[in-house]
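U., I forgot to send this yesterday:
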Amino acid sequence: MDRKEIQNKLDKLFKEKAKTIFSLQDRWECEKEYEDFEDYKDLIYKMFLSAGFLKTKLYKNFTIKTNHRCTEIEIKIYKSGKVKFTY
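Result:
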């Protein structure tokens, strides 16, 4: 799969799930003393798995690392609403 195809899959995923991802990020910032981060990791993992991305990991700074057909992808979610993809 080439970069354009990967970008198209990421664009589609974020078009459908961006609001949820940003809501999770905001909620984590407010509730991190009380909630289990594993629950957030599980939700993100399932979102990405349903879009065909494997081995997805979420970090507490809301960086997502995932894989699609041997291409490693890093996604940085910023509080400003910006998303940066690196692969």
